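Field notebook, page 455. I keep forgetting to write these up properly, so this time I am using the form the group agreed on. The chain and the ligand, adenosine-5'-diphosphate, are recorded exactly as supplied. Prediction of the bound pose follows.
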Amino acid sequence: MSIWSKYKELVASRLSDGAVPDVKGVGYWRDKLFQVIVVYMLPVCMIAYIPAMVLCYYLDQPYIAFYDSLAVALLAMVTFSKKMNLRWRKLLFVFTMYLLSVTLLYYMGVYGPGLLYLLSTVIFVSLIYSSKLAYWCIAANTAICVLFALGMHLGLMDSALVNIYTPAAWLAVASNQVLLSVLFAVSIQMLTSGLAQTLDKESSLKESIRNEMVESERLVKELKIKNEEMEQFTYIASHDLQEPLNTILGITEVLKLPSSKKGDGDFENSLDYISFSVERLKLLIKGLLDYARIGRQLEPKEVKCDEVIKNVVGDLQSAVSESGTKVLIDESVRRMAPLAVFPLDFNQLFQNLISNAIKFRRRDVEPIIELSVKEESDFFEFLVIDNGIGIKQDDLDKIFIIFKRVHGDASYEGTGIGLAFCKKIVELHRGKIWVESKAGSGSSFYFTISRHLAK
Ligand code: ADP
């Protein structure tokens, strides 16, 4: 790496204040510009410093030499100091500019580059701070020029070079500095405000592209999951629908046999089997249709959750009283503010969970169902606990798959669709559902519902 690159890297590292922001606004570019000014400042200032020192020697001006050297030392501090933050570096830089301007004006008047430095202070301030501050600089510069005119008038300036000019001639020259300062400040303001608008537009465009990308990634993920679910669903649905059809087919084969080969009572039994299978087929097809219908209700509405649960318990009254089930609604549910949900589906969710809790109860204990909720920042987490027969660890993941039943068809009625319903409904509410359970000691069904459904 060349010495110049190493030097640039060193200055950049000294002047970088924290991480690069995601959205680079005008403020970022002002700091960057200051960095570039600082990088070039020391090497370039030698172009003026060395001839100035020679001139000071020949003209016998030790004070100018002193202040020039002090300015170079301060600029070296701005460039290399390890401890100073960017804010203080900028301040020291502007201070050095003023120090140079004032001393050069004092010792050399219009003859020296003092006015030039005053003008460049305005330009630098509009570039690295803001145009508003640059107008204050113009005011300060004008005051400095007037003070010098006064100084000349009152004979306070003892420099021989300064006294060549009359105060009127001085003001005539100095007013050009003010005029040029205003022109620079105005045009730089135009430039920076145009830049700010472009950067703002760019950052809002970037933001919306980022949001679009996040949204499309989410949609692709969702689509992938839905696709997998669909494949699983088609496989299981077709498999389970075939079961009763196969039974009917088997029985019709038996019925086709000559009567000598059929046992007594086979005919009535076969008809019973057929009607049982047809009923089951009807039930499964209805379940599938209902499953496909979830989510048709497009408008979310605000509901009071404790009222939804009370209504569900009312609808299940005969099962509740027949089984002697106690349904306990926790204070957390009663206290909840109305929540935006798809009401029919939300109702169905509680209906399925509560009816399952009643159905899969233990015969020897009083069935108790407890419903509570936990409020999180983005969602509500509901909990439905029962003290029923529970579920084996190996079966916990299976029960949300359509038509999957883990307690055998004979002992408990059902189609194995209820929890698949629940999963689809919860996903419609941008949530998750899961269960914790131990065979023989009850189950805890958790599900979450997004708070932002209405947005
Ligand atoms: P169904 O109730 O018609 O069988 P579900 O989809 O509602 O279908 O439930 C799937 C299976 O999950 C049930 O067959 C049962 O084995 C198990 N299950 C559901 N809820 C409970 C519960 N509260 N306690 C124990 N097992 C349950």
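OBSERVATIONS:
- The CA atoms of residues 278 and 442 lie 34 Å apart.
- Residues 352, 356-357, 360, 386, 388-391, 399, 404-407, 414-420, 443 surround adenosine-5'-diphosphate (CB under 6 Å).
FOLLOW-UP: compare against the apo run.
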